Amino acid sequence: MTKNRINTIFALGLLTGLAGCTAPGPSVDYDAKLAAMLQSSFRDQGIAKLDRLKQDTSNAECSKAEGKDLPDALGKVVEAANLKTVKMPSDGKFLGDWKAGERLAQNGRGMTWSDNSVATSANGGNCYNCHQIDKAEISYGTIGPSLYNYGKIRGVTDPSSAAAKPIVDYTWGKLYNAKAYNACSTMPRFGHAGMLDETQLRHLMALLLDPKSPVNQ
Amino acid sequence: MKPLLIMTVLLASTVSAWAQTKSTADGIAEYRKMLEDGNPADLFEAKGEELWKKKRGPKNASLEQCDLGMGPGKVKGAFVQLPRYFADTNRVQDLESRLLTCMETLQGLDAAAIAKTPFGRGEQANMESFVAYVSASSRGMKISLPQVHAQEKTMYEVGKRAFFYRAGPYDFSCASCHGEDGKRIRMQDLPDLTKNPGDGVGFAAWPAYRVGNGELWGMQRRLNDCFRQQRFPFPGYASDVTIALGVYMGVNAKGAESIAPAIKR
Would A151 disulfide with which of A14, A209, B141, B223, CB 3.0-4.6 Å? Predict the structure, then answer.
């Protein structure tokens, strides 16, 4: 059978199919309807303004994918664009105090319309909402993977060593902009979106990577 | 029935003890059983029924002739088919937006003003009772939203897109928490709302009495707090996006048994 004949058969089948339907009418642009609906349905409240509904390319593409992975090529483009936003710590220091990190990890506050300020000092890391971290905390979420023994599993015995450098850099980047490594990651982009500052990120780094942290016992 | 306050305190302490070893779902299932004869939502339900029949508003009329989709005066079975299309308003409406229509047309109350009233105050407090009464009248029935009218189908499609719409400082969508089975936030189990999560779970469990604050929450209030935690701006009460999400969740939950008004942590 020639390609043309196959196409003709397909076309005929399609026509028959359409004729069998009740008036298909003009197709509805659901995306346009959603855009209009979002604008008419939401309003500013406190620090949560309407501009939060704007999407960058990452969010637009991942919304369209409806929970599935992006096609490989597109995923790589999105990840590369996000990786470009990652700023390494200005003084080259990656680790702070794991105790302060634990407090931040416990703190689920920040950025809602019932919070007063968008300053980083008003924000927690929300980590336990989605991750197991210190095993002593039994109230943890499961949307993200367990981070218990995060540094130990990865063989980090001295975070300042050359051997640990790739893991340290990756972990900083993951906290700063999780979409740099997984285009449609569920994890917020804490550094990129301005939710946590360098000092706060250092504390979370210590919680995950400091050999003295309860995470690595 | 025991006094409400004592019951609430008892529940709160029991739940926190359970939290050590059991998932929230186990805990809730157990204390729901304990409360079969005394869900505090019953109080809201009773008040709702009384208010339903009471003549109120500038027109001094009751809500007894309200058409919730099955014809004027028919309450039983209406809830499990909402949101649906209504010809008189030419739009798809959920329970709360339909109640606003009835309060305005039958009683002469100002629907826009009620929609702007903060939760739990004025007519919004009455709304808690109305949603308890109407949902309780369909308790044990199966969720079955019509997908017949073009607007009902459109609302499903737009609702699906709203469900997956990522934005805000955290990049969250509804699907960030409710797109997979078996996930939790802290100890709180999260239903997968992209499919039927089962009898009395997710869409089929709201409205619900919240033990933590002693309030009765309808779906509008539930969604409002979801959007707050999603770090989104504020969704208008009975706004189209909330109704579209109701259609999406409700159609997905087809066949699930409604236990509303349920009892929640």
Answer: A209
